[in-house]
Amino acid sequence: MVENREPDCNNILLTEDSAENLKKVIHCYKNVLVCGVKGVGKITNTVQAVRDRPNVYYVGNPVDYEGKKRPGSYDKYITYILSLKNDISIVKDMEALFSVSEEIILIIDEIYGRSDAELARISRLLDMPNIRVIQIVGCMKYMSGLIEKIDAIVELHLDAAFMIEKELGKAICDILGRK
After folding, report:
1. Do residues 49 and 22 lie in contact, with contact meaning Cβ atoms separated by under 8 Å?
2. How far is Cα 28 from Cα 41, in angstroms, rounded to an integer?
3. How many CA atoms lie within 13 A of 6 on its CB side?
4. How far apart are CA 175 and CA 141, in angstroms?
5. Strand 152-156, strand 161-164: pairing
6. What is the pTM of this model?
7. Does the pLDDT of residue 65 top 70, yes or no?
8. What is the distance between the alpha carbons of residues 154 and 136, in angstroms, rounded to a whole number?
9. DSSP per residue over the chain, as a string?
């Protein structure tokens, strides 16, 4: 008998292996939010989760969730991303993604500091049926209304991961995201 290796999307069991956890969730959900404190490996584990998948695109952000510049430089950060998956496509202009017709995985790194125009583009990308979006954030509260378009929320910790109910995610964005 051949073992079924596909995850049971109705009963995802998360373990201490964050990359495998994300692989399961990404298989089951179109728009995934990955959050967690600094140093839990949000980007590293996300890219590892899709390392065997074709058509992976990356939209970076020169600042982190606190508005601080990336350590070293943004160019060094992009070099690091490319070291994790050398065939990842670095997107310089999100507008170009609207003409992509093939199935792709899009990793959007951080939401903080993005302009209203960028947030509107992200909203449109979340709606596109051929694009599976993985939004990475340091702090969920900055997702604002975009949280409505997220299908699954995964919070990473150093030694574990867990899924957050969408209603709780919406409440976090509503209450903590107020200015």
Report:
1. yes
2. 21
3. 5
4. 8
5. antiparallel
6. 0.91
7. no
8. 10
9. -PPP-S--TTSPPP-S-HHHHHHHHHHH-SEEEEEESTTS-HHHHHHHHTTT-SSEEEE--SB-TTSPBPSS-HHHHHHHHHHH-TTPEEPS-GGGGGG--S-EEEEEE--TT--HHHHHHHHHHHH-TTEEEEEEES-GGGGGGGGGG-SEEEEE-SS-EEEE-HHHHHHHHHHHT--
pLDDT value, residue 5 = 61
Q: Show the tokens assigned to 146.
A: 């975009």
pLDDT above 70 (res 2): no
pLDDT-based confidence at 74, cuts 50/70/90? Answer: confident
